[in-house]
Write a structure and sequence with these properties.
13 helices, nine-stranded mixed sheet, Jelly Rolls
Length: about 775
């Protein structure tokens, strides 16, 4: 079944020709494809915020229904128009063909926040037009009079940048600026004006700095006559008639100054209401019967993310996931070979892929990734294999959510120079991924969850089993066996339950999601991998039925015998080390020998160049420093300003969602007792995998762990690296070790490994600083004593 969108459905910008181009694209698609029976849904927009394009699409439904009233129509996949809030309750005057210029008023008794704008109850505002049109609220004098005029203009957008004016007929009474030049967020005028019947008082807003976006400016204008009658633009506002008594709402033509003679009334007055997500076959209106969302999540999926997917809701409406998925790396080596095989090496796509491949191969050589992979091709093969596991985990969570009634998967094919698909640009299936999707969408599926996925022995794990049943089972009773098996087939838990399936013809209709089991189970077994399994003993051929977790024995953690010197204050870290039998002392002058120095997220007081210079000298004489948290290097606006290197580079955020990096590690003492080398396991390492990496520094002595994004574009960086400095060395790290100390055995193992690795030269005598070390310090930016 096909859910079809046109080219204009995504990223179309506003322009004078927008409406024409949009209509041609959408209605042309319908005319072309309406006789294809595989097309079941027309999509008008994708991920489009509220604005001119969205409003035009909303109004297009009647024209589309004249061409086809037999299919469902989805308005805006993902409903990005609702992300910044709803404007339901606003009264509006504007032109028929555009959202702005306009005059608006909050007609509710509550604050409306949307589009980066905040309307207080009863507040009137106006907004200039895209092409420089001025928005105007006009008062026309009903009689000759002497009036007291007060007008206040205020930015109610995040930062409106407008010019504001008060005009009596064609004469300027006041000119001001909002957040432009010397103007602040508010401008005021007050004065007495002699008016004759038919005279006009215009309050005007223009687009100030030439950029009309986000220029909503509130207007509080009051006109008091000599007889004591008060006219209030806000209190008197009506969206039903224009003119409205002495008030009228319209626009002035663009120009260097507002010209009242060009005034034109707005033609459309309305009160905004919420717009529904879809129009069912035969319907001519937008129906608010479904919640439409794109719940992309961080990769790897942690316990909190799985819980989010399992509990997504639509505030009482069923939920349709019109996009969700997890990609892989583009196999840059293979795709380049395909272009070579076709003899098309110079086409634009081939050149781009080749440039990304060359960046990857440069990283492969620079970081000696032959110590992690037998060949460069293996990096991409492991990335694609890992994608399958994450997709299956996400589908498990979605299938176990009773609120979700549909899922349109991202994506079927790699497109747009990305790797979001189940098959590649050259239509090759990604190994394992199609199997995972087939399993994940099985009509009858046992969805199992075990959290946390890394636990200590003799602590509990939460085991949950949910059955996704799309009327696949006949009415009756079914026995289901639950068990947990560990290393050497050690069975640590077993339970059988009875499942009753009601007649699907009954009322109320049986649910498609049936919770079967939820219990905390203490695991007292040998360390290693455990499988939580569920099996129908008869009558049902369900897919799924497995989840994995890992158990660590705290008594088997490697000992740290060296004393650890703490540089900087982290009371929580010091307490954890003491509780785990690791000796520590604070950083002090005149060390007796080489030291193991542990640095957390805060520098040693006073945190200035002198403090850093002393630490770097200590390293230069043979000590090893472990920088546990990259935040310690921040110096003003430089994230690596205190990094003890001449070429400091920076910290780079690597993508970690649909398009994501792949994290790798090497066989190294820092990863002793943990899976390595290769692409890092998403179950074991998921909590400690970071989203940032060191980038742009010179190659280290040892590149231990890093991340490579070949999913969308190319970017990369190091997460654990060892640098030599004089007779010593230091380790930089972005793995989330400090954040996970306590509940996570992997974090503990990594910290212990780091400390043991740092201690291997601790027995050697201190060395003298090498010649030229002070000049090296200055080159690093450390000029302290």
């Amino acid at each position: 079944m096909v859910y079809e969108e046109a080219y204009a459905s995504w990223c179309l910008a506003d322009s004078p020709k927008m409406a024409q181009r949009y209509d041609e694209s959408i209605l042309g698609m319908v005319r072309r494809d309406r006789n294809h029976p595989s097309v079941v849904i027309w999509g008008l927009l994708n991920e489009t915020p509220d604005g001119p394009v969205f409003r035009h699409a909303v109004a297009l439904l009647p024209a589309l229904r004249k061409l086809d009233d037999t299919r469902m129509v989805m308005l805006n996949s993902g409903r990005w128009d609702q992300q910044s809030g709803s404007i339901a309750g606003l009264e509006v005057w504007r032109n028929l063909d555009r959202v702005d210029p306009c005059v608006t008023r909050n007609a509710t008794d509550h604050v409306i926040k949307a589009l980066g704008i905040t309307w207080q109850p009863g507040q009137l505002s106006f907004h200039p037009g895209r092409d420089g049109e001025y928005a105007v609220v006009r008062w026309t004098a009903p009689v000759d009079d002497q009036v007291q005029l007060e007008a206040r203009f205020t930015s109610i957008a995040e930062r409106a940048t407008t010019d504001v004016h008060v005009l009596h007929n064609d004469a300027a009474l006041f000119d001001g600026l909002i957040n432009v030049g010397q103007g602040g967020p508010e401008a005021k005028y007050a004065g007495r004006v002699a008016v004759k019947v038919g005279d006009t008082i215009d309050c005007v807003v223009g687009y100030g700095n030439g950029n009309y976006g986000a220029d909503s400016t509130s207007l509080d204008v009051r006109i008091k006559t000599a007889s004591g009658k008060t006219y209030s633009a806000s209190d008197d506002f009506s969206s039903k008639q224009n003119p409205n008594g002495p008030w009228s709402y319209g626009q002035l033509s663009p120009g260097p100054r507002p010209r009242p003679a060009t005034f034109v009334l707005f033609k459309e007055g309305r009160r905004e209401t919420s717009v529904g997500t879809l129009s069912n076959p035969g319907s001519a209106v937008w129906e608010d019967v479904l919640s439409d969302t794109h719940p992309y999540q961080r990769v790897p999926h942690t316990a909190d993310i799985v819980r989010t997917l399992r509990t997504l809701h639509g505030n009482g409406l069923p939920v349709f996931l019109s996009e969700y998925g997890i990609g892989s790396a583009i196999d840059l080596l293979r795709v380049v070979r395909h272009y070579e095989q076709l003899g098309k090496t110079e086409v634009e796509d081939a050149q781009l892929y080749r440039a990304w491949r060359d960046q990857f191969l440069a990283d492969y050589q620079r970081w000696r990734l032959d110590e992690a992979f037998d060949r460069p091709e293996d990096f991409f093969a492991q990335s694609i294999a890992r994608m399958a596991g994450q997709r299956l985990l996400g589908l498990n969570a979605i299938r176990s959510n009773p609120n979700v009634v549909g899922h349109s998967m991202t994506g079927t094919v790699d497109q747009g120079m990305t790797a979001e698909g189940l098959w590649t640009t050259f239509r090759e299936l990604k190994p394992g991924t199609m199997d995972a999707v087939f399993e994940g969408f099985a009509p009858l599926r046992l969805c199992l969850f075990a959290e946390p996925v890394n636990i200590y022995r003799k602590t509990p794990v939460r085991l949950e089993a949910v059955l996704a049943n799309e009327d696949a089972l006949l009415p009756g009773d079914y026995p289901v066996r639950l068990e947990v098996l560990g290393p050497n087939q050690t069975r640590v838990f077993q339970h059988t339950l009875a499942l009753s399936i009601a007649d699907p013809r009954g009322r109320p209709e049986p649910p498609m999601v049936l919770p079967l089991f939820a219990q905390d189970v203490v695991i007292d077994g040998p360390p290693g991998k455990y499988r939580f399994l569920a099996t129908f003993e008869r009558g049902a051929a369900a897919a799924g039925g497995e989840a994995e977790f890992y158990v660590s024995d705290p008594t088997e953690m490697p000992l740290v015998e060296a004393e650890v010197v703490l540089w900087g204050e982290d009371k929580g870290l010091a307490r954890w080390l003491a509780e785990h039998g690791i000796r520590t002392r604070p950083f002090a002058a005149a060390p007796a020998g080489r030291e193991v120095i542990l640095v957390s997220s805060a520098p040693q007081a006073p945190g200035d160049e002198g403090a850093w210079a002393e630490l770097v000298r200590r390293i230069g004489r043979g000590s090893t420093a472990i920088f546990l948290s990259p935040g310690v290097f921040a110096k003003k606006d430089q994230p690596t300003g205190w990094l003890p290197l001449v070429n400091k580079g920076t910290l780079l955020g690597l993508p970690s969602w649909l398009y994501h990096k792949d994290d790798w590690n090497k066989r190294h003492p820092i990863f002793d007792g943990l899976p390595a080398p290769g692409v890092m396991d998403y179950t074991i390492y998921r909590e400690v995998i970071p989203d940032i990496a060191f980038f742009g520094q010179d190659p280290p002595a040892e590149a231990v762990c890093g991340g490579i994004n070949a999913s969308q574009g190319y970017s990369s960086g190091l997460m654990v690296a060892v640098y030599h400095l004089g007779a010593g060395r230091f380790v930089v790290n972005t793995l989330r070790i400090r954040e996970n100390l306590g509940p996570n055995p992997v974090a503990e193992r990594l910290l212990r490994n780091l400390l043991r690795y740092a201690a291997r030269d601790a027995a050697k005598p201190m060395a003298d600083l090498p010649a030229g070390f002070e000049q090296q310090l200055k080159a690093m930016g450390f000029t302290g004593p």
